[in-house]
Write a structure and sequence with these properties.
190 residues; 4 helices; 5 strands; 39% helix; globular; disordered C terminus
């Protein structure tokens, strides 16, 4: 069953714990660590799973995380928004899971479409409470309707997210938004 829960105040602390663990596991090679996804937006309902983005300079030499207890999944690409001609290399990633605290670790290459996308959307939702609340309501209703059908959930949620991104792109242009510095608790190393 897909469960969307109200925002939990402990999510930022869980992210910080994971960031410290990642820095300890991979002391060099990480350009940035960011808290992304719905748990990174104060007040937004979400699945109780922390999403973390690690930015690296070269995905082909991205540090392996298995030795530190992160489980690599076979998922290697991100969703391409309809109507965009995004080259496949711009969507490549590595995905790891962590059981405790529950987390998805997205490893993406600096400067790629998929590295920018979650950061822009996170910042847009942080700045636009009404959009965040509407997105949360959509996710809650969708989870109730689809039950445990994860594929159906993402078949609807991803295009909804893409609609948000149209507004986010306009907001980014109007505010001169740029990629934020690392959220990780330790200064980035290269």
């Amino acid at each position: 069953m897909i469960e969307i829960v109200p925002y939990r105040a402990q999510w930022p602390a869980r992210f910080a714990e994971i960031a410290v663990r990642l820095r300890a596991a991979v002391p060099t090679g990480i350009a940035a660590i960011h808290h992304i996804g719905s748990t990174a937006v104060p007040g937004l309902a979400a699945k109780d799973i922390i999403d973390v983005q690690i930015t690296v300079s070269d995905l082909d030499v991205a540090p392996p995380l298995e030795a530190a207890g992160f489980l690599r999944t076979p998922h290697t690409t991100d969703h391409c928004p309809p109507g965009l001609a995004v080259p496949p290399e711009q969507l490549r990633k590595r995905l790891y899971k962590l059981e405790s605290p529950a987390a998805n670790i997205h490893v993406r290459q600096a400067g790629r479409f998929n590295q920018r996308y979650p950061l822009l959307c996170r910042d847009y939702l942080r700045a636009h409470r009404a959009a965040a609340d509407a997105y949360g309501a959509i996710k809650q209703n969708l989870a109730r309707i689809v039950g445990s059908d994860v594929e159906a959930y993402y078949d609807v949620k991803d295009p909804v997210f893409d609609l948000l991104m149209a507004g986010a792109e306009d907001w980014a242009a109007a505010t001169a938004w740029s990629l934020p510095p690392s959220d990780g608790s330790v200064a980035p190393t290269t």
